[in-house]
Design goal:
Order of helices and strands: HHHHHHHHHH
Number of helices: 10
Largest sheet: none
Number of domains: 2
Distance between the termini: 27 Å
Helix content: over 70%
Length: 232
């Protein structure tokens, strides 16, 4: 006979899956009707704004807004469904506290780095002739391939470390951010302003400020050993 905890775990997973497919559906199934309506309404609003920005400013603005606000909210409300009723505190407040204390926001950023690595790889494969600006140069041949490969390789490594909250990934990210910002600034002086270059620079500054603010989420080897002893 399956245990009660196993039944609850399976129910929570189904609720999270339902809300991942249709925002708010998992909350509705849990009879959290107001929360379900709020999840559906907020997600719909963010999607509409994202599409509207795309029509006004182009595809890049649409994707940027979706990744920055719509997708995090979509993941948040799905995670909220997996937790069920909060009991003696507001459901969304309970969920945010769990996200904050367990570093799930950093893990979400790790997932974004994975997606970025896949996107970068597709762009490189589809546009082999494109020469990436690298500190006021546009190297070709093997050097050009190496400069283009830096981004997906670092994105994959940082994403892996962020997903597991490893301290080394914080250091690697700061190295990547230093490279990205200095390269963008140098290329800005040589090649002038550009939408992609400006967006990359602003995004890197914002992400770096947030990650430094949340640096206590990252665990050292000693932290992992202490946690392992505590759990056992």
């Amino acid at each position: 006979m399956p245990s009660l905890s196993a039944d609850r775990s399976a129910t929570s997973r189904r609720a999270a899956l339902y809300s991942a497919c249709i925002p708010g559906l998992g909350q509705f199934i849990q009879q959290r009707y107001w929360q379900g309506l709020a999840c559906f309404a907020i997600t719909t609003f963010l999607v509409v704004v994202s599409v509207g920005l795309g029509r006004i400013s182009g595809r890049a603005a649409e994707v940027f807004f979706f990744m920055l606000l719509t997708l995090p909210w979509w993941a948040f409300q799905s995670y909220d469904a997996s937790l069920g009723l909060a009991g003696d505190q507001p459901d969304f407040l309970r969920t945010w506290r769990r996200v904050w204390s367990e570093g799930h926001d950093i893990r979400f950023l790790g997932a974004l780095f994975f997606l970025s690595a896949i996107n970068d790889t597709i762009i490189i494969v589809q546009n082999p002739e494109y020469l990436l600006p690298f500190y006021c140069t546009k190297p070709s041949g093997l050097a050009g391939f190496a400069t283009k490969a830096i981004s997906p390789v670092l994105h994959t490594a940082v994403g892996c470390g962020f997903f597991r909250l490893r301290r080394w990934s914080l250091m690697l990210y700061l190295l990547y951010a230093s490279y990205g910002m200095t390269n963008a600034l140098v290329n800005l002086t040589c090649f002038g302003s550009g939408r992609v270059r400006n967006t990359l620079l602003i995004t890197l500054i914002g992400f770096t400020a947030y990650i430094l603010w949340r640096r206590r989420c990252f665990l050292t080897t000693a932290d992992l050993e202490r946690r392992s002893r505590f759990d056992s």
